[in-house]
């Protein structure tokens, strides 16, 4: 199991958004594990369930169950550490 | 629900014409084949008809509205300290070239604020027009954020009376509402082929009144008169360098023919837009940015419990509803309509949306706010 990371731009200069793309489909078990990085909100009643995880530093990871990617939006103060923590978690999950 | 960005589906026949053109042996328009086979000439004829222009050679074909607006502004013979008036409703395809000119040619750029619907504040406009006597006035015909259609006719008439050249950004309006260049007192009209005209991306154009002389912004091969080392002076060749996309313009010609044969109300006053607007207004937790008629079929809103980025992401990924969020490349309008700094979620309909789709969109919004 592997992943790649891609920086994503949006309307605003200085974006801290990254897309994590996997060679597998994100399922509920993966989402729950990822959820240990912060507060997990899991909207299972949407046609394709949506999840959002908010860390203590305000960074957010969000995506849709059944997709092969999710987005990470880091706060300015959490870009380095937050990214490192996320990627360490992903390494454990791989 | 993102037709203000690009229309989908395209007009019937467009895909076939693009494909057919790609399958044919290429020819050079103007050098071989009859005019009847030339998609560029066909587009010029149909666009001239649409804009009420007598001379089709005054229609310059470009790859999009951005190029058209750049040609109209960067190619205009401004002098240092000249003034330009524009509005806060403008798209970056207007704002950026004008800011570039402000910096590179030391021009005075005056940006008139708009009201909460996205319409220019007329009292301020007339005041600045009188004070600055600008060389050019550039205005958006319809906001891509609120859908508000500006009453540009008196504004442009007054501008011309002051000696200004008038440039209309019709990216959101051509194909949506009927107008002619002269009825709006527009010396130049920039437009795109891939929005309400229902043609392919890679098509657009600029109408240039015969009283306006532009210098070319892009020079190069024209396929004719290659012995000249300078760009030929005749219009439209003067402003058309490089190989145009014949497949794309074949598609646009098909779209323009379909449009000509299917004239109707494509504005925001049609039933579907009304149903959507009324439905959104009934949902607690959503703030609609309301623009009164006349307007295009564009609706912007914000949500209490979701950021605009998140709302659009969920609508697309969870519900399969494609829309757009953010500033919509119109960064200044949001300060005036109360949606700064993050912008809005925007739905933009086309002639092909259905009542079932609107019902589903409202269902999705209710789920999001539950």
Question: If you had to describe this structure to a student in words, what would you say it looks like?
Answer:
The complex is a heterodimer of chains A (94) and B (370). Chain A has 94 residues and is an alpha+beta fold. Chain A has two helices and six strands; from the N terminus they run ββαββββα. The longest helix of chain A is centred in the last third of the chain and has 15 residues, at 79-93. With 370 residues, chain B is an alpha/beta fold. Chain B is 34% helix and 14% strand. Chain B contains eleven helices and eleven strands. In chain B, the strands form two sheets. Chain B has a seven-stranded mixed β-sheet with strand order 1-7-6-5-4-2-3, with helices on both faces. Chain B has a four-stranded antiparallel β-sheet with strand order 8-9-11-10, covered by helices on one side. The mean pLDDT of chain B is 95. Chain A binds chain B through residues 10-11, 43, 45-50, 52, 62-64, 67, 71, and chain B through 309-310, 313-314, 317-320, 326-327, 343, 367.
Write the layout of secondary structure elements.
The complex is a heterodimer of chains A (94) and B (370).
Chain A: E1 3-8, E2 17-22, H1 28-34, E3 39-43, E4 50-54, E5 60-64, E6 69-73, H2 79-93
Antiparallel strand pairs in A: 1-2, 2-6, 3-4, 4-5, 5-6
Chain B: H1 14-23, H2 39-51, E1 59-62, H3 65-74, E2 83-87, H4 92-104, E3 108-112, H5 122-132, E4 136-140, H6 152-161, E5 165-169, E6 188-192, E7 204-208, H7 246-261, H8 271-281, E8 286-289, E9 298-303, H9 308-317, E10 324-326, H10 333-337, E11 344-348, H11 355-369
Parallel strand pairs in B: 2-3, 2-4, 4-5, 5-6
Antiparallel strand pairs in B: 1-7, 6-7, 8-9, 9-11, 10-11
């Amino acid at each position: 199991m592997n992943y790649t990371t891609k920086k994503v731009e949006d309307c605003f200069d200085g974006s801290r958004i990254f897309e994590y793309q996997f060679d597998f489909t994100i399922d509920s078990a993966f989402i729950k594990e990822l959820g240990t990085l912060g507060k997990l909100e899991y909207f299972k009643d949407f046609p394709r369930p949506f999840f959002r995880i908010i860390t203590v530093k305000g960074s957010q990871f969000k995506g849709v169950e059944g997709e092969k990617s999710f987005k990470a939006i880091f706060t300015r103060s959490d870009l380095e550490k937050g990214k490192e923590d996320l990627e360490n978690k992903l390494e454990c999950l791989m | 629900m993102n037709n203000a960005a690009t229309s989908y589906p395209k007009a019937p026949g467009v895909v076939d014409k693009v494909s057919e053109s790609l399958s044919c042996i290429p020819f050079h328009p103007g050098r071989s084949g009859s005019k009847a086979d030339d998609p560029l000439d066909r587009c010029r004829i149909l666009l001239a008809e649409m804009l009420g222009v007598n001379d089709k050679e005054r229609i310059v074909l470009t790859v999009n509205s951005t190029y058209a607006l750049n040609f109209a502004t960067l190619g205009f013979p401004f002098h240092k300290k000249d003034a330009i008036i524009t509005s806060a409703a403008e798209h970056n395809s207007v704002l950026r070239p004008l800011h570039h000119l402000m910096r590179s040619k030391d021009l005075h750029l005056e940006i008139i604020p708009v009201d909460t619907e996205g319409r220019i504040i007329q009292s301020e406009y007339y005041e600045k027009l009188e004070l600055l006597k600008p060389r050019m006035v550039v205005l958006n015909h319809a906001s891509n954020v609120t859908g508000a259609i500006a009453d540009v006719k008196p504004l442009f008439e007054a501008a011309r009376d002051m000696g200004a050249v008038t440039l209309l950004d019709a990216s959101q309006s051509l194909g949506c509402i009927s107008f002619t260049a002269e009825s709006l007192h527009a010396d130049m009209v920039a437009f795109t082929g891939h929005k309400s005209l229902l043609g392919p991306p890679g098509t657009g154009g600029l109408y240039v009144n015969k009283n306006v002389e532009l210098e070319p912004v892009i020079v190069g091969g024209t396929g004719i008169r290659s012995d000249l080392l300078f760009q030929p002076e005749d219009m439209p060749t003067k402003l058309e360098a490089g190989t145009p996309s014949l497949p794309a313009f074949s598609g646009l010609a098909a779209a323009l023919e379909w449009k000509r044969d299917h004239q109707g109300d494509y504005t925001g006053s049609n039933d579907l837009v009304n149903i959507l607007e009324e439905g959104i207004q009934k949902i607690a937790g959503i703030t609609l940015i309301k623009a009164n008629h006349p307007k295009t079929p564009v609706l912007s809103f914000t949500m209490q419990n979701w950021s605009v980025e998140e709302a659009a992401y969920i609508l697309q990924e969870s519900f399969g509803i494609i829309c757009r969020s953010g500033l919509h490349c119109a960064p200044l309008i949001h300060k005036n309509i109360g949606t700064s700094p993050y912008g809005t979620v925007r739905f933009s309909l086309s002639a092909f949306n259905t009542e079932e789709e609107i019902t589903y969109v409202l269902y999705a919004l209710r789920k999001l706010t539950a």
